[in-house]
Amino acid sequence: MIKELTKSQELLNRRKEAVANGVGVFNTATVSEAKGAIIIDADGRELIDFAGGIGVVNAGHCPEPVVAAIREQAGKYLHTSFNVVTYEPYIQLCEELAEILPHGEKTKAMLVSTGAEAVENAIKIARQATKKPAILCFTGAYHGRTMMAMTLTSKVSYKYDCGPFAPEVYRLPFPNFYRYHGARDMDTFVDDELKRLHESALNLVDIKSVAAVIIEPIQGEGGFNPVPQKYLEGLRAFCDTHGIILIMDEVQSGFCRTGHWASWQHYGVQPDISTYAKSMGSGLPIAAVVGRAEIMDAAAIGSIGGTYIGSPICCVAASATIKYMKEINLNEKAVQIGKVMMDRLQHLMGQHSEIGDVRGVGAMIAIEFVRNGDATQPNSEICPQIVKGCAENGLVILSAGTHKNILRILSPLVITDKQLEKGLSILESQIKKAIHTI
């Protein structure tokens, strides 16, 4: 007797037949509807969302004020191109970004469609502002999959046979304290890493040719690794000394995820340029480059942007998202959610040596799995089992990291206490099951 396929299985089979294999399948869940922190799959089954569309729905799936703003704008005009016809939603959003993400005395912004586009344009702006070509980036970095962004991205599996890559890009080791500190304390580790940074001016690249350093204050795809406070302060000083623009990529860590509009606000270290996308538009494709006005204005007219820069539909969605986030104090909610997660997961870590680390800022939480309690021995086998088991039991979650040995939690920040506790219970159960299986 042939077993009848579920609607989800049918959908996945159709995907396999019609969609290019290179488009990743990070989870086998499907969706027919979504609201708040809940996804309804093609078979009508409820799933708790701990992935958030890869950190895109901090304000929840389909927040009502955002949906209403989209509907209203859709009845007015869909596209004119901001290059051709100026419109209010673009300008209003840039004003709002300058208010919540101030860069120095005067801040300006530009809008594009994706995080990768934001990074590409940030690099162009930095090069034009400094008249220099070279860019410094970091191991473990993820900045997107367009050509410059892919060059800056560290993970090799995203780059197979895609070269040659953009020239004049140089990579430094990210100061990943958990993985590489060995017997050193934080201060000693950071001092050593800052020494390495300064030595790069002698053994990596002519420092006089460096336009910018780009860094994620909390790495996303790299495994939610937070840069140490003292290192970021030292990096800011290094850039100031050498006339280098400091770019901070906040695409995954921005818009309330860490308890601030941007994670750099935790550090009190201000970038010259920063990039945003994902939760900025509650799921609509919009991104921004924000920076000091004199730097942003260094780009020649027509050298940045594109046809779809700041779609009016996406702009109103982003403005409505920002307003909604303020009204419900989503930054405070992120801190509360993060505490609940950290308390439960750190308790679980104390019971299992296979969990090497639980870390994060606000509600940007990661669980790293290792062998023999050793940070230098990543366990790459365990995460796929946990992700699969969670999906089968009503929870959507994603892995991360160079070795795919890290689980990352990016639940919508509007998740209810009951949903959060249930999701964590499913996750704990699947972690224990996977640990005992391997």
TrEMBL record:
Give the transmembrane ranges: none
- CC cofactor: pyridoxal 5'-phosphate
User: Which superkingdom heads the taxonomic lineage of this protein's source?
Assistant: Bacteria
**What would be one Pfam family of this protein?**
Aminotran_3
Coiled-coil annotation reads: none
Q: Which UniProt keywords apply?
A: Aminotransferase, Pyridoxal phosphate, Transferase
Which InterPro entries is this protein grouped with?
Aminotrans_3, Aminotrans_3_PPA_site, Class-III_PLP-dep_AT, PyrdxlP-dep_Trfase, PyrdxlP-dep_Trfase_major, PyrdxlP-dep_Trfase_small
- Gene3D superfamilies, per the entry: Aspartate Aminotransferase, domain 1, Type I PLP-dependent aspartate aminotransferase-like (Major domain)
Does the keyword Transferase feature in the UniProt annotation? yes
Molecular function, one GO term? pyridoxal phosphate binding
Q: Which family does it belong to?
A: Belongs to the class-III pyridoxal-phosphate-dependent aminotransferase family.
Q: What's the protein here called?
A: 4-aminobutyrate aminotransferase apoenzyme
Q: Which species is this UniProt entry from?
A: Pricia antarctica
